[in-house]
TrEMBL record:
Its EC number is 2.7.1.2. It comes from Breznakia pachnodae. PANTHER family: BIFUNCTIONAL UDP-N-ACETYLGLUCOSAMINE 2-EPIMERASE_N-ACETYLMANNOSAMINE KINASE (PTHR18964:SF149), ROK (REPRESSOR, ORF, KINASE) FAMILY (PTHR18964). This is Glucokinase. GO terms for molecular function: glucokinase activity. The keyword Transferase applies. The keyword Cytoplasm does not apply. Belongs to the ROK (NagC/XylR) family. InterPro entries: ATPase_NBD (IPR043129), ROK (IPR000600).
Length: 298
């Protein structure tokens, strides 16, 4: 049995998993991402890999974009700062671990996993979005990631949906991540004077009748539905698969977004709009990263 390491580096947590060639997660380690110093995170990754007593063919790394995929470099992602900017992660990770490493956009890899063993495994055109700390997207056609001319396809976080809308980090005002991500929902609620720590608490307040929380949650769903309708008009996917904590943990979120998206496409097209939750939970990035490692290291 062959094994690969799947690594999912997020703005909040980093997960390292040992995955076999049948895409079973054998072992997993999770720790806080140092959002300013990548070398601290890489050392923790090395320590985690050393715990796995198996012969490993390579490492696949899922990381927030934008990325320079040609050179294996993290460019300027909104949720990682300081030393992460223009950081040659493939070179440095290979140096630290002694294993071949390969990099892809986190949402692209999650989309690849969904198209390989998830909700889209029997479909040709699979669109994935993660709605979590940030908001990302990936599109897979016939089990292959669509990267675009420069590797930047589906970098939708900065897609402007709301003129003069909210912003955070390096995003332009009105970017969809600044409206519908968990971070954005929480930030807007706190600015409105609500005592919340995450998007789930904002939703709870909305259900209890808070008009401020209701407006914020309505914006998150409405503008995300606008985004999905725009994607549908451009690429006509067979399925939208939503992952990430907001989509997976807030009851009714995905269903409401599907309903609103159906109402925004041309009449007669709505039966083809299908929006579902990921059935890989939060493991899609890890599995996609392992898939990348197996494919590249073979």
């Amino acid at each position: 049995m062959k094994y690969a390491i799947g690594i999912d580096i997020g703005g909040t947590n980093t997960r390292v998993a040992l995955i076999d060639e049948e895409y079973h997660l054998v072992e997993r380690v999770q720790f806080d991402t140092d959002a300013h110093n990548p070398h601290v995170t890489l050392q923790k990754i090395k320590d985690a890999i050393n715990l796995f007593d198996k012969e490993i063919v390579g490492i696949g790394v899922s990381c927030p974009g934008p990325l320079d995929l040609l050179h294996g470099v993290v460019l300027n992602t909104p949720n990682l700062h300081g030393g992460w900017t223009n950081f040659p992660i493939v070179e440095e990770l290979s140096k630290v671990t002694g294993l071949p490493a390969f990099l892809e956009n986190d949402a692209n890899l999650a989309a690849l996993a969904e198209a390989t063993i998830g909700q889209g495994k029997d479909l040709r055109y699979v669109q994935f979005l993660t709605v979590s700390t940030g908001l990302g997207s990936g599109f897979v056609v016939d089990k292959k990631i669509y990267q675009g001319a420069h590797g930047y396809a589906n970098e939708i976080a900065n897609m402007i949906m709301w003129k003069g809308g909210p912003s955070h980090g390096k995003l332009s005002p009105g970017g969809i991540e600044a409206i519908s991500s968990g971070t954005a929902i929480t930030k807007r609620a706190q600015a409105a004077g609500l005592e919340v720590e995450h998007a789930g608490e904002v939703n709870d307040l909305a259900l209890k009748g808070s008009s401020e929380a209701q407006a914020i949650m309505d914006d998150a769903k409405e503008y995300l539905a606008n985004t999905l309708a725009a994607i549908f008009a451009l690429v006509d996917p067979e399925i939208f698969i939503l992952g990430g904590s907001v989509a997976l943990k807030i009851d009714g979120f995905v269903e409401e977004v599907e309903k609103r998206t159906k109402a925004k496409v041309y009449p007669g097209m709505d039966p083809y709009v299908r929006v579902v939750k990921s059935n890989l939970n939060e493991d899609s990035g890890l599995i996609g990263a392992a898939c990348l490692a197996f494919n590249k290291a073979a």
